[in-house]
Amino acid sequence: MKAAVLHRYGAPEFGDFVDPDPGAYPDGVLVEVRSATINSIDRVTAAGRHYLSPKTFPVVAGIEGAGVTADNRRVYFGRPVIPFGSMAESTVVSAGFVMPIPDSVAFPVAATLGNTGMAALMPLTDAARLKPGDNVVLLGGSGVVGRLAIQAARLLGAGTITVVGRDEVALAATLPLGASATVSTEGLSVGRLTAAIREASGGVDVIVDYTWGEPALAALAAGNTGVRLVQVGDRAGATATLAAQQLRSLGASVTGFMPVHHGPEAMTRAYQQLISWADRADLTVDYELIPLSDVTAAWERSGAVRHKLVLVP
């Protein structure tokens, strides 16, 4: 079969790989892949900088996708059995990592709502326990995950939804999705950024943080009593110094997030909610279809675009 093959750490190459045999694995499910996403975890894993990074080569890249099983079920799937991956004509997955999708939801949408959708929804629901009326701030919220988080926060009944980022054009594009206000970090000190976030949000109850660094400090300082920060990414810096008195005075909490920490049932529940919204056309999912044969070029672009790149075998 054709696949995106890693022969060494770096970018995958389009080429041939052995066909998967589901019978060789306990509970193996063969999936004919129709869509496979390129995620940041794919890039980090392929670079050898993740605990899931391969120890031997060659392997097929990709942690998730959508397709059709041998018994003609439309499914989303995650975590293919090594050495197989999602970026291939077919793959094999353990039965526990396969979820059904309705006929009305396109394969690229179903694939995008997996890793990306869970990183948008679960910080709000499972980590922050968002309540209707809570004011939400999304740090670094103008990218593909943040744009889904805006819509999820709106559908969950958030009070205000403030998106913080650097690119004013990208920030402006979040307003039609449900953002109440945007704040650009360009040229602002932490103190001025705190004031801007407080004014835009009316005081913060929930922070979903895709950046860390100074934006996280500024957003916490704009928090209401009991503010909850959910830490998802660190694009603005790997470290930040939090003042103990500030945390105590606000009763603030800071929680590190990964979907797996909440367990498979929570992940399944979140995915089903996202698919339900997509089925009702309540979500806008931005993606670009790219032939699997162009995987190497797409790989190089994937870290710089604000929509999901979806490979099609």
Highest CATH level, the class of the largest domain:
Alpha Beta
CATH architecture of the largest domain: 3-Layer(aba) Sandwich
Radius of gyration, rounded?
20 Å
Work out the strand percent: 25-35%
Shape estimate: elongated
Chain oligomer state: single chain
Order of helices and strands: EEEHEEEEEHHEHEHEHEHEHEHEHE
Mean pLDDT: 96
Total domains? 2
CATH H-level superfamily title of the largest domain: NAD(P)-binding Rossmann-like Domain
How far the N terminus sits from the C terminus, by CA atoms, comes to 10 Å
Find the count of extended strands (DSSP E, 2+ residues).
Answer: 16
Please identify the structural class as seen in this structure. Answer: alpha/beta
Secondary structure tally, helices = 10
Helical coverage, percent range:
25-40%
What does this protein structure show overall?
By secondary structure, this protein is an alpha/beta fold. It folds into two domains: 2-113 and 285-312, Medium-chain alcohol dehydrogenases, catalytic domain (Quinone Oxidoreductase, Chain A, domain 1), CATH 3.90.180.10; 116-260, Rossmann fold. Helix content is 30%, strand content 26%. It has helices at residues 40-46, 107-112, 115-127, 144-155, 168-172, 190-201, 213-221, 244-250, 263-279, 295-301; strands at 2-6, 13-16, 28-37, 59-60, 64-69, 74-78, 90-94, 98-100, 136-139, 161-165, 181-184, 204-209, 223-231, 253-256, 287-291, 308-312. Strands 3, 5, 6, 7, 8, 15 and 16 form a seven-stranded mixed β-sheet that branches. Strands 11-10-9-12-13-14 form a six-stranded parallel β-sheet, with helices on both faces. Strand 5 (64-69) and strand 6 form a beta hairpin. The chain is elongated and about 60 Å long.
